[in-house]
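tmp note - ABC transmembrane type-1 domain-containing protein
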Amino acid sequence: RCNRDCIDGVPHRSGSWMMNLCGGPVCSNQDALSCAFKEVFDSSTCTNHLAATGIGLLLVLALALQLVIKIPNSGGSAQGLVAVGSPLQLAAVVFSGCLGLVYLGLGLSMLGSIFSQDAAAYLPHWWLVTLSQGFSLVLSSFAFSVRPRFLGASFVPLWSILVVVYAAFICCSSVVGIVADKAITIKACLDVLSLPAAFLFLLYGVRCTHDEDGYQATGNALYKPLNTEADGQIADSDTQVTSFAKAGFFSKMSFWWLNHLMKLGYEKPLEDKDMPLLQTTDRAHNQYLMFLEKLNSKQSHSHATPSILWTIVSCHKREIIVSGFFALLKVLTLSTGPLLLKAFINVSVGKGTFKYEGFVLAATMFVCKCCESLSQRQWFFRTRRLGLQVRSFLSAAIYKKQQKLSNSAKMKHSSGQIMNYVTVDAYRIGEFPYWFHQTWTTSVQLCIALAILYNAVGAAAVSSLAVIIITVIGNAPVAKLQHKFQSKLMEAQDVRLKAMSESLVHMKILKLYSWEGHFKKVIEGLREVEYKWLSAFLLRRAYNSFLFWSSPVLVSAATFLTCYLFKIPLDASNVFTTVATLRLVQDPVRTIPDVIAVLIQAKVGFTRISKFLDAPELNGQLRKKYRVGIDYPIVMNSCSFSWDENPSKPTLNNINLVVKAGEKVAICGEVGSGKSTLLAAVLGEVPKTEGT
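out:
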């Protein structure tokens, strides 16, 4: 059969170069449309290689002309020509550069096979397309490491779009060739990887347009007059904000925004002035305002008192969901380890399903481990940040509430207790988001591990499930005791802190009457009570830890004993998979005691803070606001006041007081006559029962 470049079976001169290049006829006497489709979109054909080479050379020529023309006319220095300013740009440059070097190495090896007179030498179109793709990728990598302003703001995104189209053509052609030949080659893998590299170029091309706009704005600002001092202070405060506030997606995922601070810490010890400011959303004031807004909106929709817990959840539900997604991703990627290990063992004993299964498994394991590390870091960082936000606005809420407490509430919540709410309870609630996702990811991981065990050893997995259930049931009464002892411990700590704060405040009186020894014995007695509840709590926690730390050994022993009794066959694949799965279960099972302890402490702390925030407040409507122009700023007309809010037992009765503006008034009286109560009544801190 002869193609259209042949006449009467003799090759024509115009088709001789094609024969030499391709080593055979390009297309036979078949349907022209189907022939053209196959020749163009099959990566094993000469026509496809010629098309890819031609497109690649055109792109390289356009890029080279742009570099030659633009860079000399830009007037920039050689030092400022190349700059890698973002993790996205670094990933695109490094990934495409390495890919291009591999292409060049493969093309040179193909070319070397011709000179070595190898029988399996490649035809010219094979090494030609490989070298052209490698050269285009290396040149593209260099071009994208150049600052966008040297190439032009419009050229970079246009070039990145053309590169994506070119890479998509090569990738689709390679996929068609893999399906047709039912074989995977090194060049086909490189062709598939060229598409993600092109997408990285596209993402960077879209972002660099914004960078170019920012550069132009900065350049124009050089010709503006000097700003005022206030503007300079605002600019300084904006520059001192943490880089996390302006970090992009890739910077947040890779923690690239920390590089500047880590570099500074490497050069010199960090000081307070080196610490950047928090972004606006992380500051305690804004967090507290957001909490109040959610609380007020819930109160307007419902007459009942809204739950503070669900108000906190509604304030941060997005961050909870995102961190939960990363926690689930970490569990899923971690659970692929035993499955990949089993597949590796099957490949090693000759039970593989296809030719290059080992390479695919190695690449899959690498990707899974990268995803596991990435998701775990994001999970930990986001939950720690969420915990700090919750702790900061709870501390602010406690501080604001303490200023508005009524007298009856102050009798129930002393200064020592309020100090405990901030330093202990708010801290433990802030630690809880870090452990929150452990409460359900542990169950998910145990279920996945039991499914893998059932797949490996069959019915023997039932014994593992039974041991885990017995362990959890045996821990239930201990957890209840822990909750009880934690509540008693916090009460004893409140009493001790109250006594210590009162002793420190009135230390002059203690020294005057020589009561130091007596108060020391009282505080030591309170410490003994606190120590009793603390030791009881820690002993139950130690029992809890021993129970769960020994459970992996009991689970593995029960599994293999069941396999022996029921004569379940064990080979290398089953044994290694079982051991890896049990090793996978150890960490979540051993963290269960810590999760339970943190959950109990957070529950106790949240109950105490909720009671404090729901405590009665001073009635702000007891007094009218003073207005400018009135001669009497303070007026009391037939007023009665009672600390107990009981009209039948007034502390001050039938008080009439008028104070003029600018007038000095002295309130005199014997001890216990009500001078301080009168001043507190002026401030609105004593409930008014009668009068105006």
